[in-house]
Amino acid sequence: MSKFPSDIEIAQATKMLPITEIAGKLNLTKDDIYLYGDHIAKVHGHILRDRPYEPGRLVLVSAITPTKAGEGKTTTTIGLSQGLAKLGQSVACALREPSLGPIFGIKGGAAGGGYSQVVPMEDINLHFTGDFAAIAAANNLLAAAIDNHIYQRSSVSFDPRTVTWRRCVDMNDRALRDCIIGLGGRKQGVPRETGFIITAASEVMAVLCLAQDFNDLKHRFDNIFIGFTYDRKPVLAKEMGVTGAMAMLMKQALRPNLVQTLEGVPAFIHGGPFANIAHGCNSLLATKMALSTADWAITEAGFGFDLGAEKFFDIKCQYGKLCPSLVVLVATCRALKLHGGKSKKHLDEADPEAVAKGLPNLEKHLENIAKFNLPAVVCVNRFPQDTPEELQVVLDRCAELGVAAAVGEGFTRGGDGMRELAQLVIDGARDCSTEFKPLYDWEWSVEKKIETICGEIYGAEHVEFTSKAKRMMRRIKKFGYDKLPICMAKTPTSLSDNPRLYGRPKDFIITVRDIRISAGSAFLVPLTGDVMLMPGLPKEPAAYKMNIDDEGNISGLF
Question: Hey, which bits of 211-349 come out as E strands?
Answer without folding.
Answer: 225-228, 234-236, 257-261, 266-269, 296-300, 324-331
